[in-house]
Amino acid sequence: MLFDCTLSDLHRLKRANSDEQTTPATVAVVSEQRKTSTTSCCEARRQRRYSKSGRLGAEIGVYSTSSTNIQSPCGDCVRHHHCTVKMKDHPLRLTKRGKLQQRRSALNEQIKKQLRLRAGAQNLYNATEDKKIRELVQLELSFLESSLQHLKMELADLNTAWQVYQNDQCANAMPLITLGLKEAKLTDFTVPFQNMLHDYYHQDAALFDNAIKKLNTLRENTMLPSRDEEGVKLLSTYYCQLCHVEKRFFYQSVHKDIYFEWFDAFTGVPSVQRSIAFEKGSVLFNIAALYTQIAVNQNRSKVHGCQAAVNSFTDAFNTLTHLRSKFANSPSVDMQSDMLDAVLQVIHAQIYECYCEQMFLENETSNNSNSNNLPTAHMLLAKECAHVAACYGRCQTRMSSSSVAPFLPSTWNTLINVKRSFYTALAHLQTACATLSITDANRNDTKKHFTHLFDIAKCKDCAFTYGVELNQPPATSKAQHLLAQIHLRITLTTLDECTVKIRLSKQLRKHAALQHILQQTVQDAKAKLQQCETDDKFADLYEAAPIVPISTLKLNNQNMTWQPMQSDEDDLFKLMGPVSTFCTENQFQPIRTLNLVKDSEISEFGFTVTGDTTPVRVDKVDSRGIAGKAGMKSGDVLLKVNGVPVLWECCTNVQQLINATGRTLSITIQPCDQRTAAAVCNISLPTMNAKTYSPMTTTASSKINRYDDILQETTNTPGLSNRGRMSSATTKQKNKFSRRSFLNLFNIKRHSKSSSAINTLPTHLR
Predict the structure, then answer these.
(1) What residues contact residue 572 under an 8 Å CB cut-off, 6+ apart?
(2) Residue 349's CB: how many other CB atoms inside 10 A?
(3) DSSP secondary structure string for all residues of 632-675
(4) Is the pLDDT of residue 194 over 90?
(5) At what angle do helices 337-369 and 276-296 cross, to 10 degrees?
(6) Which of 112, 202, 388, 668 is the 20 to 30 A CA-CA neighbour of 600?
């Protein structure tokens, strides 16, 4: 077998020896030496971390033809290599969104590399004292900083590529802001979970290989979910599995052998944590990001599409709210409280924006059938647009804070500023339309809504400036035209400001739909302005009254709670037992199988079982009975009864199995520590006095205490004369003899483990 070598071996040879020619003989040597190798590639890579060959190595190891001992790839590295190849060939990578995510992944890797180079250069600058070297390093640091800023600008451009997520059927809709998915590195749970199953739970790890494999596959698939409900369900399933895994394998949410690496969605900076809370928070962020992408992908030219967008944005809002409340102090910027508050404000404003678009579509159909409701409909739309503008105003205030502004793309702030001005102009346009559509037939119906249209408290100076009372509809056509003209002038002025802001933004200039919407709105405003005929020369100087921001959409805070989607996948590690018992909060001992045989004179096995919920435990044990002599204790978990698994059986069924047996009972138990058993079975732990506590038997401890009391009485007996006392030499010899005899009596050695028993001796006997 001349070519008994994997394809990865050829790639390693090419990387390690780019100037040498790979021949069949070289491949044969590599294959033969790989078979006889005993060192794993992971260990070799760690040994050559700072060498030249180590820097040239790939993910599966470094191979060189000049080396006498070529390391073979271990199972973890081969698994990681195949997973990487599989992710590159994923069908979703071929879509526009997949290619965008692939560019994001490449930028994240480049940013990570630049950060490492900058950290190394900074360390060299701090360590050296040579002036020339410090100048060279300082120059290199400036280049690295410039390169890093350029990469972050490219990442910001990816975060503003909203056209990729937009639905093709609503090309003329207003662009919406979406969140990009966080990128992650592959993590293998196999070895850490197998070690914990064997060492901590004392179970056969081979029984859970399939469950661990499913968990690894599930995490791999969550890196590129589909942009639909199936993708959300996939992420929710993985999140639910993490909740089960956290209780079983993570002590205080941390595992010392598992590292989770995620890249920041806005800055691309990697963060590595051992806490599973960081993993769960990142998954929640991706769920919210996926909801925003689903919302933008809806066809908002239809009413049902706007409703679906509102629902998806609401789900994203609930998910991020849950993330902010449950996972604090995140190491990455995108999940910090200030950043989440800003993103929540943006999503909250977009919820009302989609609802406003839905109201426009509904009014287009209703106004054609009934023209008497035109003023009321326009006034409701004016209040709705004013509310959207107010929401974007709060977004702009939140995003301008010093803790958020440096990390968010500048295009976001520009678009939010444009939308704030646009919906303010749209509110004034709808007010003008409502004013012009008032007639004698609908004047009484309009008066109720017109009274609450303007904010009278904020417009005291302009309330009666142009002879119009703002608390009731205009009485004459001249007053109607004057009021409409004032609002239309404000509309055109505000739209001109929006056009200037768009021209100054590099990214917004590319959005033809945004410019088309502005042009269409300007044309509508000019057409309405031509209908207004007034002779007032000071009409352009009048100030328009502000419109009250009120929305008919009421978001109930009680229903704004996040709930994961129901998945068909149950707990992968259900075979271990109920998670309430088999978790890291409890301590377990090796599993034992007890074969209990009744004597002819004994009718019971000497133990009782209890358990309101699974699993069933041993309640009381007769120390003189069969079970007590076999080693059964209170609190032990019953795993099998006569070979039948009873982990998920109720107490009644287990009792029936025990009663149905004959004289012989084979029972498999898993003993728990004393504190776990006491907490479950309501057993009070024995409280011992510090003076009498000893790991020895109770009889030996009591004899020591009695001997201590006798010596105390002897030394403290009053009335003894000097003649009745022993000399000091005789006392020392007596104490030496009595101590030796006392230790021999109870088989206690000076350096034995029962040192606490020696501490209970009198001071002169130690």
Answers:
(1) 211, 214, 215, 241, 244
(2) 26
(3) --TTPEEEEETTEE-TT--HHHHHHHHHH--SEEEEEEE-B-HH
(4) yes
(5) 20
(6) 668
pLDDT tier at 319, thresholds 50, 70, 90? very high
* pTM for this entry: 0.75
DSSP labels for 368-424?
A: HH-STTHHHHHHHHHHHHHHHHHHHHHHHHHHTSTTTTTTS-HHHHHHHHHHHHHHH
Q: Which amino acid is at 637?
A: V
Residue 338 main-chain phi, psi, to 5 deg = -65, -40
Highest-confidence range of 169-183, 387-401, 529-543, 744-758, by mean pLDDT?
Answer: 387-401
Can you tell me the mean pLDDT for 474-490?
A: 82
Residue that has been written with the tokens 């929640």 in this structure: 284
Query: Which of the 8 DSSP states describes residue 468?
Result: -
Nearest 10 degrees: CA dihedral of 396, 402, 408, 412?
20
- Residue where the block lists tokens 């093709």: 168
The CA-to-CA distance between both ends of the chain, in Å, stands at 75
What is the pLDDT averaged over residues 483-510?
90
Euclidean distance between CA atoms 752 and 149, whole angstroms? 66
Residue listed under structure tokens 């929540």: 344
Interval 258-268 mean pLDDT? 93
Confidence at residue 8, expressed as pLDDT on a 0 to 100 scale: 46
Its sign, for the CA torsion 395, 400, 406, 411, is positive
Beta bridge partners of 592: 669
**Which tens digits make up the pLDDT trace of 536-578?**
655 666 777 788 888 888 876 545 566 666 555 688 999 898 8
Pairing mode, strands 644-645 and 270-273: unpaired
Structure tokens at 613: 């919920």
Strand partners, 610: 617
Q: In the predicted model, is pLDDT for residue 704 greater than 50?
A: no
Residue 540 to residues 382, 433, 492, 493, Cα–Cα distance (Å):
21, 18, 12, 11
Question: What's the pLDDT score for residue 678?
Answer: 59
Instruction: State how far the Cα of 189 lies from the Cα of 255, in Å rounded to an integer.
Output: 11
**Residue 7 pLDDT exceeds 80:** no
Q: Which string of DSSP letters, residue by residue, matches 144-176?
A: HHHHHHHHHHHHHHHHT-GGGTS-GGGTTSPP-
Chain centroid to Cα 410, Å, comes to: 26
Distance between CA atoms of 531 and 558, rounded to whole angstroms?
A: 48
Q: Is the pLDDT of residue 50 over 70?
A: no
Q: CA-CA distance, 116 to 510, in Å (whole number)?
A: 35
pLDDT in the model for residue 91 = 53
DSSP states of 526-550 = HHHHHT-----TTGGGPPPPPBP--
Sign of the dihedral through C-alpha 198, 199, 201, 202: positive
SS3 321: helix
Tell me how many helices (H) and strands (E) the chain has. 24, 8
Q: Which two tokens stand for residue 83?
A: 């997973």
With beta carbons less than 8 A apart as the criterion, state whether 453 and 379 touch: yes
Which tokens in the block code for residue 296? Answer: 């933008």
Which one-letter DSSP state was computed for residue 92? G
**What is the pLDDT averaged over residues 292-296?**
94
